C-alpha cells in the first residue's frame, strides 16, 4: 500500500491516458456526434499524443513542471472546449503541486481540486449541467474519502468518475454544445464526462503500479 | 463517406494549401500555423480584424480575408476552434498600432480560446477588443446556458466591421459597429441531410428520407426538432417567423436578407428559397434593403440552408456597400 | 428525393423569380419567357452575347449575365435546352446593331434549338454568329458521332468573349476569340454521387458507397467508367492526365486552371482538389497563369468536380483580367 | 377496311399520343436516366399537352395546318433534342399533306417519309445509331408494305416501330447523349425510339377507329 507517488507516476499517468484515449477516440467522437459536433475523440487523441511527445522530449522534471508542460501542450494543440478546459486543469493542478515533494492522497486531492477550480473559472459551468464537471466532482469527493491510501483513493475516484459519466445520460445540458439541443440532449452520455472517466481511470492504474 | 480528400487527418492542411495556390496574389497562408493573411497588410494606424474558428464552414473565415473585410483568419481543425497560439500569432502579425478586433462566434470553445489569446496579446501591449456573435434564434438565450450560437450574422459583421476598419475608425467604434450588427441580426437554419465529419466517417445524425431538421447549427448538431419535408414556401415560414419574432424593430429600418446554403444545396435551390423568403417578408411588411444568396457559412457537406435578417440602419448599409475584395465576397473593387 | 423546392414543375420558374428578387439592380428577368437580361443594356454599336441551355447548372448561364460577360441567358427546363422562341426573343432584345454571338454548348438539343433560332433571327436582319463549345475529353471527338460535350470551357469563353465584346470589337473578332478559347481548352469531370433530376425523383445512376464515376458530364449522364474511390491526389491525376494528352501545346503558353464543383461538393474539398491539381501541373511543367476554384457550372446536386485547362495566350489573359460584374463572377468592377 | 382517313383522325392521333405519352412519361424518363439526362418523358409530356391545347384552341382545319401547328408547338415547348426533331417531323409531314384530300396509305407513307427526311436533315443521324430513327425507318418500311390498306399499314408500322425500339437495346450509340457513354450505352433501349413507338402505335389506333 503506497502512501505517496512521485512525478514518474504522473508521467505514467499521462502515457496510460494517451493510450486509453487513442483506443477509445472513436467512441468519444460518436458520443459527441450525438449531442455535439463529432470531434471530441479526434481532439483528445491529437492533444494527448502531443503531450506524450512533449514529455518524451524531456526537460526539467518535477510534478509541477511536468503538468504545466502537459497543460500548455493541450492548450496549444486541442482547441475547441476541451483544449482550454483540460489544459487549464493540468496547469492549475501542476501549480498546486509546486512545493509538494512526495504526493500523498491529500495533496493529490488538493491538486485535483485546484484543477477543477480552473475548469469552473474557464468554463463557468456548475455540477449538473451535463459536462465533464459531472465526472470530476464525484471523482474529487471520492479522492477525499481515502486520505491515507492514494491507491484506494484513486481507484475510488475512477469508479466515481465512471458513475458520474453515466449519470450525465438523463441530464438536459445547459452548458457546451449539447445545450443547443435542449431536451433532445437527454438520453446521451456527455463526451467530456466520458473522457474524464478515462483519464481518471488511467490515474488510478498508474498509481496502482501499472506501467506504460 | 465520400469526399474529395487525401486523408481525414490532412483535410485542413490540404485545403489551406489549395487556398494558397488558388489565390497567390490576394492571400498569404501560413501553412505551419494555419493562418490566412492578406497578401498586402493594411496601412499603419488602421484597426485590424482577426476572426477564425473551426474549419468546415468555407468560405468562412479564410475566404473573407482581404481589403474591406478581415486581416487574418485562424483555421482550426474541422469544427474545432483554433488554439490560442494561432490567434496570438495572427493578432501580433496584423496589428498596425491601432488595435485588433477579435470577431468570435459564440461557442464555448471559440470563446475560451480567443479569451486566452486576448489575455496574452493584451499582456504584450496590443489593444484587443472582442465581439462575440450570437444570432441563432433556434437556441434559447439565457444567462444560465451557453447562449445562442453565432452563425450567419458573423459574415455580415465581418463585412460591415471590415469596412469601418478600412475607413480608419478607432477600435472602439469598429467594435461598437460589430456589436450593433450582432444585436440587430438573427438567424435560423434547417437541414435536409446531416453533414459527415471526416474523422467520424459517417453522418452526424440520421435523417429519414422524408424528414428535415429545423433549428440546426453549423456543426452537424441535430436541430431543435424534426418534421416531414415540406415545400420551399413552408420551409421559408419555418425560418422567417422565428426570426421576426426576435428581430429588433429598429425604427422600422429595412433588412439585409442573407439566404445561406449549408454546403451541398445547389444554387438553384437557394434561389427558390430566396424567392419564398422575399415573398414572405413583403407580406409581413419588412423592407429588404440588400440581399446575399449563396454558400457563405457552410457545414461541410450538409444540404439545407439558413436565413439571416439584419435590421440595418443607414450606416450599416453604407458600410455594407463599401468595396470588398476577398475570395468569398467581392464588389466595388 | 430531398430538395428545397415547391414542386418539380415549378423549380425553374421559382428559381428565376428568386434570381430576380436577389439581384434587382443587376438583372431583369423575363419570368414569362425565362430569359435573364442585364438591368441596363449595353451601348448601341456593341456586339451582344446570348447563351443559354438547360437549367440545373447554376450559376451558369443566368448568373453570368452582366457587364463584361453575357447580355442575356435563356433558361431551359432542367437539363433541357431552351426553345427557339426564347433564343429569338433574347437575340432580338439585346442586339445593339452590331450583331449577336450565340455561345452554345455542344449537345444535339442545344445545337438544334440555337440553329433554328439563328436561322429565324438572321431572317429578320440580325447578324448572328454561333460558337459551339466542345471541350470534354471524356468523350471521343469524331465526325461520325455527336462529338465532345461542351462543359467548363463555356464559362471561360463567356468571360473572355464578353470582355472582347465590351471593348467594342466586331462580331467576327468576338466569335474568333470564343472559337480560340474553345479550341485551346479541355475539360474532364468526375462524380462521387449522381444528381437527382427533380421530375425523375431519384438519382440518375446508382453508385456504390465506395465507387466513383470518371468522365461524367453535367447532366447526370454516367461517366465513361467506374472505379473505387481514391485519394484526391489520384483523382487529380484522373483529370489532369487525359486533359494534358489532348491540350494543344500553344507555344508553351501557361494555362488558366479552373477547378469546378458539381454542386454538392463543399469548397473545402474543391480547395483540396485544387492543391493536388496545382502540384501535378507544376510537376508536369505546365505554368498556371490564372485560377478559378468554385461552383460555376454545376449538375444539380451532384458531388464531384471537373477540371478545365485553357492554354491562354496574352490576349486571352488580358480579356480574362478585364472587369466583370455578374452575380456569379465579379472582379475589377 | 377504311381506305382513307381525314384530318379528324389525325386530331384523334395527337390526342391518343398525348394520353399514351402522359401515361408512360415516367418510363421514358427512366430510359433517358440510364443513358441520357432523365428528361425525355417530362419533355414529351409537356410538348404533347401543349399540342392538344393548341388543337383544342381550334383554328383552320386540314391535315396540313393541323400538323404544322402541332409541329410548331413542339418546337416552342419541348426544347432539347426531341423538340426540334419531332417538331420538324410534323412540320414536314404536314407540308407533304398540303394538297392531299383524303389520306390513303401511300400518301400517309409519303408524309411520314417527308417527316423522316426532316429528322435526318435536323439531326444528321442515320439508321443504326441508336436514335428514334431506328423506330421510324422500320415503321416507314412497314407502311409501304400495305399500299391499299391504311389500317393494316399503320398497325404494321406500329409493330415495326416497337421492334425497332427493341432493336436499339444492344446498339452502341453514336448520336445523341447516349453516345457519350460509348460501349456503356449498350443494353438500354433508346428513349426516343420508345416515344416513337408510342406515337406510331397511337396513329395505328386512331386509324383503326379508336376515339380519344
Ligand atoms: N462550459 C463548460 N464547462 C465544462 N465543460 C464543458 C463546458 N463546455 C463544454 N464542456 C465539455 O467539453 C466537452 C466537449 O469537448 P469538445 O468536443 O472537444 O469541444 P467542442 O464542444 O468545442 O467541440 C463536452 O462534452 C463537455 O464535457
Ligand atoms: N441526332 C439525332 N437524330 C435523331 N434522333 C436523335 C438525335 N439525337 C438525339 N435523338 C433522339 O432524341 C432522344 C432524346 O430526347 P430528349 O431526352 O428529349 O433530348 P435531350 O437529349 O436533349 O435531353 C434520344 O433518345 C434519341 O432518340
Ligand atoms: Mg466537440
Ligand atoms: Mg468542436
Ligand atoms: Mg435534355
Ligand atoms: Mg434527355
Automatic annotation (TrEMBL), chains A, D:
Keywords assigned by UniProt, alphabetized: Kinase, Transferase
CC annotations in GO: cytosol
Domain DhaL: 8-205
Molecular functions per Gene Ontology: glycerone kinase activity
EC annotation from Swiss-Prot or TrEMBL: 2.7.-.-
InterPro entries, alphabetized: DhaK_L_YcgS (IPR012737), DhaL_dom (IPR004007), DhaL_dom_sf (IPR036117), Dihydroxyacetone_Kinase (IPR050861)
One of the GO BP terms on file: glycerol catabolic process
Name of the protein this chain belongs to: Dihydroxyacetone kinase, L subunit
UniProt lineage: Bacteria, Bacillati, Actinomycetota, Actinomycetes, Propionibacteriales
Automatic annotation (TrEMBL), chains B, C:
Cross-referenced Pfam families: Dak1
Signal sequence extent: none
Coiled coil ranges: none
GO BP annotations listed: glycerol catabolic process
Tree of life domain: Bacteria
Pathway(s) annotated for this protein in UniProt: Polyol metabolism; glycerol degradation
Gene Ontology molecular-function annotations: glycerone kinase activity; phosphoenolpyruvate-glycerone phosphotransferase activity
UniProt keyword annotation of Transferase present: yes
Reactions mediated catalytically: dihydroxyacetone + phosphoenolpyruvate = dihydroxyacetone phosphate + pyruvate
Keyword Transmembrane helix listed: no
UniProt enzyme class: transferase
Keywords recorded for this protein, A-Z: Glycerol metabolism, Kinase, Transferase
Gene3D superfamilies: Dihydroxyacetone kinase, domain 1, Dihydroxyacetone kinase, domain 2
Location of the DhaK domain: 7-331
Known partners and oligomeric status: Homodimer. The dihydroxyacetone kinase complex is composed of a homodimer of DhaM, a homodimer of DhaK and the subunit DhaL.
PANTHER family: TRIOKINASE/FMN CYCLASE (PTHR28629), TRIOKINASE_FMN CYCLASE (PTHR28629:SF4)
Protein name: phosphoenolpyruvate--glycerone phosphotransferase
Organism: Propionibacterium acidifaciens F0233
Taxonomic lineage from the root: Bacteria, Bacillati, Actinomycetota, Actinomycetes, Propionibacteriales
Amino acid at each position: 500500500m503506497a502512501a505517496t507517488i512521485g512525478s514518474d507516476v504522473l508521467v505514467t499517468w499521462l502515457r496510460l491516458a494517451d493510450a486509453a484515449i487513442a483506443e477509445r477516440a472513436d467512441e468519444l467522437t460518436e458520443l459527441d456526434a450525438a449531442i455535439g459536433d463529432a470531434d471530441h475523440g479526434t481532439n483528445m487523441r491529437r492533444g494527448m499524443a502531443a503531450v506524450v511527445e512533449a514529455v518524451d522530449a524531456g526537460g526539467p522534471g518535477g510534478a509541477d513542471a511536468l503538468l504545466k508542460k502537459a497543460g500548455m501542450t493541450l492548450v496549444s494543440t486541442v482547441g475547441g472546449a476541451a483544449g482550454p478546459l483540460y489544459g487549464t486543469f493540468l496547469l492549475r493542478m501542476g501549480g498546486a503541486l509546486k512545493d509538494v515533494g512526495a504526493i500523498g492522497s491529500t495533496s493529490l486531492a488538493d491538486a485535483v481540486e485546484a484543477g477543477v477550480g480552473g475548469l469552473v473559472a474557464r468554463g463557468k459551468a456548475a455540477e449538473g449541467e451535463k459536462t465533464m464537471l459531472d465526472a470530476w466532482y464525484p471523482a474529487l469527493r471520492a479522492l477525499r474519502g481515502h486520505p491515507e491510501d492514494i491507491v484506494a483513493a484513486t481507484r475510488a475516484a475512477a469508479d466515481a468518475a465512471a458513475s458520474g459519466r453515466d449519470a450525465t445520460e438523463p441530464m438536459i445540458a445547459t452548458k457546451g454544445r449539447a445545450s443547443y439541443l435542449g431536451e433532445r440532449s437527454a438520453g446521451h452520455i456527455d463526451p467530456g464526462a466520458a473522457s474524464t472517466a478515462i483519464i481518471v481511470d488511467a490515474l488510478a492504474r498508474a498509481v496502482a503500479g501499472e506501467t506504460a | 463517406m465520400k469526399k474529395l480528400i487525401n486523408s481525414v487527418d490532412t483535410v485542413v492542411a490540404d485545403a489551406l494549401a489549395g487556398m494558397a495556390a488558388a489565390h497567390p496574389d490576394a492571400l498569404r497562408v501560413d501553412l505551419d500555423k494555419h493562418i490566412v493573411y492578406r497578401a498586402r497588410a493594411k496601412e499603419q494606424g488602421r484597426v485590424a480584424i482577426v476572426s477564425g474558428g473551426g474549419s468546415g464552414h468555407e468560405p468562412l473565415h479564410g475566404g473573407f480575408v482581404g481589403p474591406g473585410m478581415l486581416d487574418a483568419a485562424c483555421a482550426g481543425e474541422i469544427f474545432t476552434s483554433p488554439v490560442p497560439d494561432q490567434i496570438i500569432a495572427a493578432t501580433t502579425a496584423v496589428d498596425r498600432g491601432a488595435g485588433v478586433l477579435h470577431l468570435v462566434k459564440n461557442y464555448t470553445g471559440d470563446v475560451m480560446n480567443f479569451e486566452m489569446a486576448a489575455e496574452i496579446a493584451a499582456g504584450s501591449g496590443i489593444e484587443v477588443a472582442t465581439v462575440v456573435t450570437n444570432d441563432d434564434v433556434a437556441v434559447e438565450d439565457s444567462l444560465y446556458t451557453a447562449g445562442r450560437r453565432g452563425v450567419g450574422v458573423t459574415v455580415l459583421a465581418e463585412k460591415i466591421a471590415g469596412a469601418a476598419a478600412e475607413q480608419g475608425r478607432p477600435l472602439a467604434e469598429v467594435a461598437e459597429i460589430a456589436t450593433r450588427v450582432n444585436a440587430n441580426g438573427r438567424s435560423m437554419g434547417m437541414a435536409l441531410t446531416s453533414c459527415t465529419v471526416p474523422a467520424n466517417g459517417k453522418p452526424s445524425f440520421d435523417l429519414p428520407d422524408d424528414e428535415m431538421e429545423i433549428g440546426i447549427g453549423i456543426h452537424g448538431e441535430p436541430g431543435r426538432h424534426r418534421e416531414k419535408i415540406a415545400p420551399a414556401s413552408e420551409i421559408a415560414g419555418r425560418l422567417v417567423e422565428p426570426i421576426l419574432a426576435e428581430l429588433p424593430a429598429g425604427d422600422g429600418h429595412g433588412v439585409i436578407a442573407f439566404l445561406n446554403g449549408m454546403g451541398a444545396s445547389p444554387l438553384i435551390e437557394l434561389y427558390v428559397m430566396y424567392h419564398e423568403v422575399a415573398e414572405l417578408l413583403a407580406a409581413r411588411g419588412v423592407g429588404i434593403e440588400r440581399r446575399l444568396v449563396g454558400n457563405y457559412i457552410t457545414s461541410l457537406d450538409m444540404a439545407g440552408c439558413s436565413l439571416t435578417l439584419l435590421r440595418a440602419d443607414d450606416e450599416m448599409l453604407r458600410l455594407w456597400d463599401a468595396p470588398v475584395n476577398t475570395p468569398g465576397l467581392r464588389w466595388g473593387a
